[in-house]
Amino acid sequence: MCLATVYIEDDGQREEVMQDVAWIKPESSGLQLINFLGESRLLQARIKSVDLVDGLIVLERMTADLPQNDIQLEEESDGRNDSYI
Hints:
Elements: E1 4-10, E2 13-27, E3 30-35, E4 40-43, E5 45-51, E6 56-61, E7 71-72
Parallel strand pairs: 1-6
Antiparallel strand pairs: 1-2, 2-3, 3-4, 4-7, 5-6
């Protein structure tokens, strides 16, 4: 199973934001991260690097003026299985 750990980098410091990420979906306000259990987070960030060998994804904030907190999304289910794996 190919799952990743996602970090956000600020001023050379990396902070882990989510483990076992299975999907990253681009949204108008950033990136939606969804883990294996279906938990999701929306971050106002862009991808800086992806290491597929080690399952490591590094993000960077889109602007320095944005708040440090991410937006928690509620899971919406319409009964369909939207699995991409």
